[in-house]
Design brief:
single chain, alpha+beta, about 70 residues
Length: about 70
């Protein structure tokens, strides 16, 4: 069994659709330049309300990835 060392990034994704979509967008964008993403943890969820309805979601998450040998 090999030992792994992880590095964390903090990202904030946004979406007018849903909090899940905001997470998906953040991870998809990070995956364009960061290899070996292994996990994520949502640390904060917030949104913008307009005319009594949710207009926009913002989700902050920590993303863990393994460092290469």
């Amino acid at each position: 069994m090999s030992n792994h060392v992880y590095k964390l990034l903090e990202l904030t994704g946004s979406s007018p659709t849903s909090s899940d979509d905001a997470v998906q967008c953040a991870i998809a964008k990070a995956s364009e330049s960061v290899r070996n993403i292994q996990w994520f943890e949502v640390t904060e969820t917030r949104g913008h309300v307009q005319d009594g309805k949710i207009a926009h979601w913002q989700v902050t998450l920590k993303v863990g990835f393994t460092l290469e040998d």
